[in-house]
Amino acid sequence: MRAWIFFLLCLAGKALAAPEPVGANPVQVEVGEFEEPTEDVEEIVAENPCQNHHCKHGKVCEVDDNNSPMCVCQDPSSCPATSGVFEKVCGTDNKTYDSSCHFFATKCTLEGTKKGHKLHLDYIGPCKFIPACLDTELTEFPLRMRDWLKNVLITLYERDEDNNLLTEKQKLKVKKIHENEKRLEAGDHTVELLARDFEKNYNMYIFPVHWQFGQLDQHPIDGYLSHTELAPLRAPLIPMEHCTTRFFEACDLDNDKYIALEEWASCFGIKEREYLPARAGDTQKFPPQGCSNGPGWWGAGEGDAGVTPAAPVP
C-alpha cells in the first residue's frame, strides 16, 4: 500500500508541474516579476542559439561552425550525480542505470545499431527479478487498478481546495463519487470484495477509467495511447505490480502497438456504451513529469516505435 501512496504522490506531483494555465498550476506568478529587460533577453538569445532549441532525451544542444544549433548525444558522465535508489532505472538489457539521464545518453550513443534499437527503458528503479504473471493474477489486476484510480481522484479532490488539481467539470464528477455513502473506502481489499463493489457501484468507476486515459493521451490527443504516452503510468507500476506488462499487452487487442480508448475501457470492464464520454473534453492534461521521462510500455522508449485479455468483471 505504501508503494501505491508513493506513486499517487508522483501523480499529484505531475499535476503540480503543469506549465499551462488549465487549472493544474496552484501557483500563479506574474511573469514580469522575474523578467529581464527585453534588450538583454534578445542579446542572450542572439549569443546563444541553443537558448530555445529543444533536444529529446539523451541529447544536448551544441552550436556548429555556422553558429547554428544542433542536437548531439549527451556524454553519460555529464549527467547530474544521483543519490537515491529511486533515481535509478532498469533497461531492457537488464542493466541498472544511475538515472534516466544516464540511460537515454547511453541509448543515444547506440543510435543506428541493432543493440540501440532493442534497448528501451523498462521501468523505474534498479533491475530486479520480475516474476511471471499468472492467468489468475492477470484477471485480478484490473480490479485493483480500477479501485486505485477511483481513490487517486478522490484524494486529488480532497486536496484540491487551493491547488486546482482538477477542472471544475472534473470536480463535479468526482464530488458525486466522494459524497456517495455506498463508496468503498480505500484499503487493502480482497479481489472478491472489489469485484462485488464494481458490480454494485459500476457508475463510480466509469469516470476514473476515462480520466486516466485522458491524462496519458497527450501527444497527440487522438484517442490512442502510444508507447511514450503510456510510460508515466507503466514504468513506476512494474516494480510493484508484476502483471503490468502483460496487462497492457492484452489491452492491445489488434497488436498495432497502440491502445485505443475502446480497448482501454474494455480492459477495465467498462461497457461499450460508456466508451465515448472521455472524448467530450472533460479530461485535463497533466504533463508526464516528476515520475518518469518518457519510457515506453512493454520495452519501448521515447520516440520508439499474444495474450488473451483479462475477462471483464461483470
Automatic annotation (TrEMBL):
Domain of life where this protein originates: Eukaryota
Entries under InterPro entries matching the protein: EF-hand-dom_pair, EF_Hand_1_Ca_BS, Fol_N, Follistatin/Osteonectin_EGF, Kazal_dom, Kazal_dom_sf, Osteonectin_CS, SPARC/Testican_Ca-bd-dom
SMART domains cross-referenced by the UniProt entry: FOLN, KAZAL
Keywords: Basement membrane, Calcium, Copper, Disulfide bond, Extracellular matrix, Glycoprotein, Metal-binding, Secreted, Signal
UniProt keyword Transferase present: no
Disulfide bond positions: C50-C61, C55-C71, C73-C108, C79-C101, C90-C127, C133-C243, C251-C267
Record-given protein name: SPARC
Organism: Cairina moschata (Muscovy duck)
Taxonomic lineage from the root: Eukaryota, Metazoa, Chordata, Craniata, Vertebrata
